[in-house]
Amino acid sequence: MNAYPQFLERRDGNSLVWRDGKRMTIDDGRGAKTPAERLDSPDLKDMLMTPYPQGEAPPPVLDFDPGRARNSAFFLAMYGDCEKGGVIANLVPVVWLPKKWGKTLQVTRINGVAERLAAISAELDALPDRFDTYLYPPAGTYNCRPIAGTTRLSPHGLGIAIDIATKHTDYWRWNKPGSDGRYPYRNRIPAEIVAIFEKHGFIWGGKWYHYDTMHFEYRPELLPAR
Fold this sequence. Notes:
Elements: E1 8-12, E2 15-18, E3 23-25, H1 35-40, H2 44-47, H3 72-79, E4 91-96, E5 103-108, H4 113-125, H5 132-135, E6 161-163, H6 191-199, E7 202-204, E8 215-218
Antiparallel strand pairs: 1-2, 2-3, 4-5, 6-8, 7-8
């Protein structure tokens, strides 16, 4: 409710009550779920089960994926369904790095996402030139598509995500597991960039065991109140 005050009113027992009267179940009562089940059918409680480590953090342990569980009904009710044309009307342009690159990206205006991404852009634009290679050209924002290898809607389809640094990104699906069956962690994105995104409510895919280091998405419910 602190993260999304425009939409959420109160908790009533096991229900989250929206300002328009809609009610969503917090705990579906299924008990402990496997990591795969939390991804495929998370309730609202599952989304908050794994605390997101803001700031410097060690490489994530097995299946530590804070933010990868997304209750689709919750986010579709908030941002719209891109497959039904429900997102496009709320997309607005944001100039990315106005001094160094100056081209526009499309993100949603809902929850102030566009405003926050513009603030991020301004702070990144002021970083020393050595960071430029990680910042432009970006790899995309709005895209109505599923997450690679799944049927789940990508947060890019909600207009709340941005990918950067294609040439310097690391992604778990691009690597093979080691002899122990685990994926070795890799990252080349500087901590200074991550800190700016987190300051404005965006989480980073580089803090997942199933890492996606180019990826940032607006998920303020996982970060301290700003």
